[in-house]
Amino acid sequence: MKRFDSILLRTFLYGLPLILLLAIFSYSYDSVPPVSANNYIILLENFAGFMFMSWMLLSIYLGIRLMFSGIFREKVLTKLTFIKERDEREVMLTGKAAKATMLTTLAILIFLFVLSCFQISVCSIPLEKAIDGKTNIISLGVKLELLENLPKDDAREAMQEQTIFSYAGLPISSSALILGLIIWQVVAYNYSMRRLMK
Fold first, then answer.
1. Is 112 in contact with 177 (CB distance < 8 Å)?
2. Hey, which of 18, 97, 143, 147 would disulfide with 192, CB 3.0 to 4.6 Å?
3. Where are the transmembrane segments (predicted)?
């Protein structure tokens, strides 16, 4: 099983440049209609689709292996994060750096969770719907949704209000947020390790 995982991991890494090239090719020929495309382009697009599907399945398999196999996880992620434990001192420093990284990441996650739950909007409503002659309203709310794309309340639209300022959660996508946290983990650990080594 170890040899099989190693082969799949190498296939994943060495196949990454090919996937990027195929993605660029597919994007550049995306606007070409199937009627005007010649057989070579159609064949290459079919090959690209098969390669994307294979690479995605391989990514899912490797992700599951990283979660559930301690040996595989340690082998791969220690190289990815540049963890080196050559003696007892470095083992101890690795533990301290990992603790510092975990606590700062947890603090960032709590902060981002709070920001994602808050909703603030400043709106202007028609004069006939004004309350005590005031046409500007501030709305504060807390939103905690476990699923995306839930139906929205249309009560505000019924008031015909004009939004001046609105904040309804983090403006970045979940993919960008997860990628940012992965990069943060690696950078924060290595920074902590270098600081402790001095």
1. yes
2. 97
3. 7-27, 47-68, 106-127, 164-189
Where does residue 3 rank: exposed (0-12), middle (13-18), buried (19+ CB within 10 A)?
exposed
Could you tell me how many helices (H) and strands (E) the chain has, helices first?
Answer: 6, 3
Q: Write out the H or E segment, with its range, that includes residue 124.
A: strand 118-124
**What token pair was written down for 55?**
């690479």
CA atoms within 13 A of residue 24's CA, in its CB half-sphere? 5
Contacts of residue 97, defined as CB under 8 A and 6 or more positions apart, other chains included, come to: 189, 192, 193, 196
* Burial bucket for residue 82 (CB in 10 Å: 0-12, 13-18, 19+): exposed
Q: Which residues contact 118 (CB under 8 A, 6 or more apart)?
A: 140, 141, 142, 143, 167, 169
Which structure tokens are listed for 194?
């270098």
What are 48-92's pLDDT values in tens digits? Answer: 788 888 888 999 999 999 889 888 888 888 888 888 878 888 888
Q: Tell me how many degrees the CA angle 192-77-184 measures, rounded to the nearest 5.
A: 45
Q: Tokens 């004069």 appear where?
A: 127
Residue with tokens 């994943």: 12
